[in-house]
Structure formats: structure tokens, C-alpha cells
Amino acid sequence: MLVLASKSASRQDMLRAAGVLFEPCPADVDERALEAKLGDASAAEVAGALALKKARNVADRLPGRLVLGSDSLVSVAGRRFDKPGSRQAAAEHLRFFSGRTMHLHSAAALVRGEETLWQHTALAKLQIRELSEDFIAHYLDMEWPAITHCAGAFRIEGQGVQLFAGMEGDMFTVLGMPLVPVLAALRDLGTLPS
């Protein structure tokens, strides 16, 4: 059975809905330390490195098991954004995002033991509409603290959909994992029937 190196409800829901049997086992990774170590790497490279690190972290604890790691990272106007640690940080992020295009990078990696079997990073481009101060305050009243652990300070399946004027890319990428390529990789590895 596949092991998912994540406690993300969204990633678990995606796999469940797709009929993939898995066991959740959250990774213990200092994401900010790894991101700092990568320095000027692109957001896509950082997301890929984090997904791989999470998968390897869990694979080290569960030898011989197939482990799926995943991560999402947001960049706007060339600047990377972490999950907002406070309501004030979320408001600052939203003010910066207003009227700009968000690049959401969702990465996944499959690992068994010390072997990396597969990696992929997908991109979604989300056009943020102009956000008023009143909207930001109302939005945070409704969505905080649920968005504390969400890259980009939004849940697309919640009121976060109101942030956007348009989207380019698939919904699974926006939800936090490039599911269609993950499923193809699992079929290629014989974990899912083809």
C-alpha cells in the first residue's frame, strides 16, 4: 500500500476520491531550513526539493514501502510566499497579491528506500482580482484560521475561490498535488492497474 508523506486533508481527499489505497504518515521536515539552504532556487525547484525531502524522510522510517511526497509553493511577482503564520501575515500577503498573477507550483515525488522513482512539478497561474481592504477583512473573518497552513492564504474549495479573476492550470495542482501525473506514475510502477 502507498504511503502518503503528508497530513494534508486536501491531498488525502484527492487520493481517496481517485480510489487510491494509502496510509498517511506525515513527514518531519523543517521546510523553511531546506528552503533557506536552496537560496536563489526557483519556486518550482524548491517545491520539488520539498516534495522529495518529505518522501525520503518517511521512506527512511518505512524501508521497502512506496512513499509519495508532495508540496506546493506560491510565488507572486518573483517573490516566494510561505504559509501565513498569523492573520496579519495573511492580510499582508493578500494585499501584495491584489491585482497580480500567482504562480502555484505543486510537486510530487515517489520514493522507495533510497531510490527516487519519479518526480514531477506542475504549474497553475491564478489571476488575483483587485482586493479591497473590506474584502480582505471579511475574507479573513470567514477563513482564518483554516488557511493558516495553506500556501497562498487560500483554500480553493472554500471562500478562497473569491480571490480570483481567472485560472490557468488544472484544479488538482491548485489543490496541492499534480494528481493526474501521480496516478500515471503509480500505474507505470504497477501500484495501480493500467
What would you say this structure looks like, in words?
By secondary structure, the protein is α/β, with parallel strands linked by helices. It has one domain: Maf protein (Alpha-Beta Complex). Helix content is 38%, strand content 26%. Strands 1, 2, 3, 4, 5, 6 and 7 form a seven-stranded mixed sheet that branches. Helix 4 packs across helix 5. It starts with a strand and ends in a 6-residue tail after the last helix. The mean pLDDT is 95.
Let me know the average pLDDT: 95
Distance between the termini: 16 Å
Number of strands: 7
SSE ordering: EHEHHEEHEEHEHH
**Total number of helices:** 7
CATH class: Alpha Beta
Helix content: 25-40%
Low-confidence segments, given as residue ranges, are none
Strand percentage lies at 25-35%
- Specify the structural class: alpha/beta
What is this entry, summarized?
This protein is α/β, with parallel strands linked by helices and 194 residues long.
